[in-house]
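Final report, Chapter 2: Outcomes

The project's central promise was a pipeline that accepts a single protein chain and returns its three-dimensional structure in a standardized token representation, suitable for archiving and comparison. That pipeline is now operational. To close this chapter, we reproduce one record exactly as it appears in the project archive, with the input sequence first and the structure output second.
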Amino acid sequence: MPEKTVREMTALERRHYSLEARMFHAVEMVSAVLGFVALLIGLGLYVYALLGQYVGEAFGLARSASMVIEQVADTETLVGDVMTVYRGLSQEERAGSRTETYRANYAEISSGEDYQMLRTVLREFLDSSDVNDVFLAVYDRETSSLVYIVDPDEREGHICYPGDWEPVSEKELNTFLSWDGTGKLHYFSKRDNFAWLCTAGVPLRNDAGEIIGFVLADVSLAEVGSGIKSFLIQYVIGIAIATVLIGFFLTRHMKKTLVQPINEIAEAAQNYAQDKKKGEPRSDYFAMLNIRTGDEVENLSLVLADMERDLTEYEENLTKITAEKERIGTELALATRIQADMLPNIFPAFPERPDFDIYASMDPAKEVGGDFYDFFLIDEKHLGLVMADVSGKGVPAALFMMISKILVQNYAMTGRSPAQVLQAVNDQICSNNREEMFVTVWLGVLDTETGKITAANAGHEYPVLMQAGGQFELVKDKHGFVIGGMDGMRYKEYELTLTPGSRLFLYTDGVPEATNAQREMFGTDRMLDALNEAPDAAPEMILKNVRKAVDGFVKDAEQFDDLTMLCVEYKGVHS
């Protein structure tokens, strides 16, 4: 604090101790402290987000690659051949990994068609991404090593051939071999020849559900350090510039809105006192100031006038918002009715057909949804059955759902097989899918004379089948890739045979993934229990039993996803 009074100070001293100068110093100090705190928080969030981005990119790439390679080559046999040779070598022979002599043991494998095909596919994934490597390998617990099966990386010092291996820690082995399927599978490690890496991947399983290998993707963490350094430099420079600018402009603003009005008020009060002493009464000292700061300095009447104006504007805006909300509600209600009318909703659907009975329902999580079912007669003896789930919810999913439903039905009505229909629909959607949406589809065609169903599955839930006199059981069919996910996909067909009294139940993931207040999922086991409560009931009653079980499990929790079901009972041809 200064020892002199304001009146004793020189002009320079008054400027130094002025309110304006003190505001500038305070703003600079606060800005510097906040900048440092923000730096620590921002750096932490940046590193966390950057690592999460790398993990997400590597995991997503590995997952996509795993879906493709299982379709193009006999991965299980290739892995088995490599591991047979690897385990047949002695410890001394394996110690010569990456040598010409060692690699000669796998020469026949590396020249095989499956190996070359997988290497080409993985190379395409590697070239189209920012990861350092994507490869097929096996975590071998017996030798605590990572054994390479197929690696397309051609960089000097990074080339790995079939059977090449490197030691890994027990923690890394447990992380990958004991993964429970939740989250993004990844591990950070420091390799002797690759430095720090983030390895993410997904397991490949055989028909028995056993892990045969992993599709892995590597991201070098050297880029994280580079990103942090660049972030720090840019951030420090930005904070320094921002601190000066904030101090300058805030001081100018405070001078105009606070310091100057205070000085004007002080001058007016001084003039008022002087004129009072002289006997010159006036009543316009403060009125002439005309201060418009927008705060307590202004006259109370202006505040009340502003309040009245604000309230009037608020009421007008509220009326407009209410009207707009009602309009949107009306349009959503209309959209809900239109979507409901797009699906077959009149039951019994085919009262003139005694050879089968069918019932379906769709309850969207929002006003409109992305799930849909469909059934239609392709001709007098073939019944098309569709169950599908569009990515996302709400209006975008509903629009995509309508397009997908029309395409599936139109192609199916041409007499194509289910696999051909899914291929045609996928090509059509992929040709113009800028929003990158996708849909999972189960499509089957029932021959009403023989009871045979020819079906294909594009990434959808497993169907549930009950043979006459038996219980409902999951049919773990082979999944193809989702519709709209990748152009040029091919789909495999399989057959189911229904006998009189058999029932087929189709559903979307809204049933097993229905969640209660404790965030527990309904699950397929509870779904099967609900189906088997009265397995011989009519299709409509079967769906009601499942919905009742879901509602009893979820209770008051908000519906998380669209809930769609379909059940068909095959009665057979009656003579």
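Archive annotation: The first strand starts at residue 133 and ends at 140.
This record, like all others produced under the grant, will remain available to the consortium after the project formally closes.
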